[in-house]
Structure formats: C-alpha cells, structure tokens
Amino acid sequence: MLTSKFYRQQKRPSGSHAKDAAALSSDIYLVSVAKPAGEVAKAMKHYPTVARSHNMVVTMANFVGPSDDFLSVGQSAAWNTRGELLAQIDAESEGIVVLDIQSGSAGVKLADATIHATDCEVKYR
What is the CA radius of gyration of the chain? Predict the structure, then answer.
C-alpha cells in the first residue's frame, strides 16, 4: 500500500513552504494560488525546480478568471520528482489536474459547461 505525506502549514519557520515540507519527509507538495500571466510564467519555472530539489511531486492549482484587481490565468499543473511537467490546463478552461500517485501520471479533467444551479454540481468530462 502506498502512503503519502501531505504538507500544509500557515507559518513558514524556514521561510520556504517547500523546504519545510521536505523537512517533514513530504512527497507531495500541493500549491493553491491565484496568479496572473506573469506570475504563472515564473511558477512554471519555479515549481519544477522545487520538485527536483526536494524530490517531491508538485501540483499547482491556479484560479481562472477575475480575482480582486487582476485576471488569474489558470494553467493548473503537476510535475513529477524529476521536475517533468505531467499535465497542465490551458489559460481559459476550468477543470482539475488529476494526479495518480501510484503510477506517477497525471491528466486534465475539464469542467463541463453545464452547471446545475439546484445542486451546485459541476460535471467533469
């Protein structure tokens, strides 16, 4: 049976979430962000390095659409421990990146355009 350690912490003793996660022997690093285009470009360079440096699978979930005073551009993604991009959503679509930690693969599930207002359920293709 495969067990994984996940890391989430509000305060960063070392100044780095990833470093703190690695120190706790985490093997999956989950990042939730709201980033505009320029920041996503930086993240696409940063998170593969985090994956390689700390030998952790990294997933980045980014909001898509208006966010406060800027436009978040989606592009949620996942990288393996070698920093190789496994899957990424485009800049306009809503969806989720699905990571299979046993096989080391990932894929994208896009949200169906139909949202059922009565039960607030989003269907994925």
Answer: 15
pTM listed for this prediction = 0.78
Per-block mean pLDDT, blocks of 10 residues, the chain (125 long) = 48 68 90 90 95 95 89 95 96 91 91 53 51
Nearest to 60 by CA among 11, 111, 97: 97
> Virtual CA dihedral for 85, 56, 76, 17, nearest 10 degrees?
-140
Cβ contact 9:43 at 8 Å: no
The single residue listed with the structure tokens 């607030």 is 120
Name which of 105, 109, 99 is nearest 29 in CA terms: 99
Task: Please give the structure tokens belonging to residue 123.
Answer: 């269907």
30 vs 52: CA distance, rounded Å: 15
Nearest to 29 by CA among 72, 59, 68: 59
**Structure confidence at residue 53 (pLDDT):** 95
